[in-house]
Amino acid sequence: MTRDFSTVGVIGLGTMGAGIVEVFARNGIDVVAVEVDGPAIEHGKAVLGGSTGRALARGKMTQEEHDALHSRVTFTSNLEDLAPCQLVVEAVPEHLDLKKDLLGKVDAVVSADAILATNTSSLPVTEIAVATKNPKRVVGMHFFNPAPVQQFVEVIRTVITADDVFEDVKALAERLGKNPVVVGDKAGFIANALLFGYLNHAVSMFESRYATREDLDAAMRFGCGYPMGPLALLDLIGLDTAYEILDTMYKQGRDRLHAPSPIIKQMVSAGMLGRKSGRGFYTYE
Ligand code: CAA
């Protein structure tokens, strides 16, 4: 690893971003955590605090470790504060233009050898890369939800990513305790390409009243040993994110497997985004 990654940046403190901040800070890395405004920062702080508070309450972390973790994180709404970062990971919503615009701006702020990473689940990393002046330093660094728990990271290497860039990101993922794989820039990469056809199928079974949500989830939990059933998992991922992922994969591959089941879009329009909005396939307190 040629870079020491003592300071990194994370942009977007939603479900994934706040978890990614925690992963870095837990591993002794200083984090500049960026959100658009004060309320969004407060929300990100609450997500991070909820997760570390739970770890503290369960005795998985001492008070000292907890406080040290939080002391490593600086919150800001100013992209210029990313200047000292050797890596910046963006984890903003799955909209191509937003990600392109953002990394284009970060490109102008960080030093020449810093790495720019996108946590996109399915958007073309190459297109995001070419929106910057130096596409060789852009990779995908795709974490899984909940990021502090799941031990997998996909490192997406485009045709123009420099070797030292994806090698350093892979080594960093190992330092974070993850099992990284390097994959090419194809919608859904590996895990989502396999997972989302299954999730979409479960939604269409639910939509056609083939089985109840509880029975669909029970089948996969108790019959197949999955940690969560497909509808509970979609609530965890977020229905808006799931819709964007399916839609991107459908547009790229045109296979019916990934044509988003209509009810997903309807639920998104109705604000039923899953856990984060309090209601999805299930209701949350
Ligand atoms: N943030 C941080 N930690 C969390 C957490 C969260 N949101 N949710 C759970 N945890 C931690 C708990 O604190 C607990 O930690 P300890 O064991 O150290 O005490 C551990 O995870 C287990 O949690 P629980 O006992 O509460 O519950 P569980 O055993 O049912 O596990 C789960 C919860 C980890 C979410 C598990 O059900 C699971 O792995 N589900 C599948 C998740 C999955 O498939 N994720 C991938 C989604 S696809 C994706 O992310 C890619 C994409 O691009 C959309």
Automatic annotation (TrEMBL):
It comes from the Bacteria. Residues 188-284 form the 3-hydroxyacyl-CoA dehydrogenase C-terminal domain. Residues 7-185 form the 3-hydroxyacyl-CoA dehydrogenase NAD binding domain. Belongs to the 3-hydroxyacyl-CoA dehydrogenase family. This is 3-hydroxybutyryl-CoA dehydrogenase.
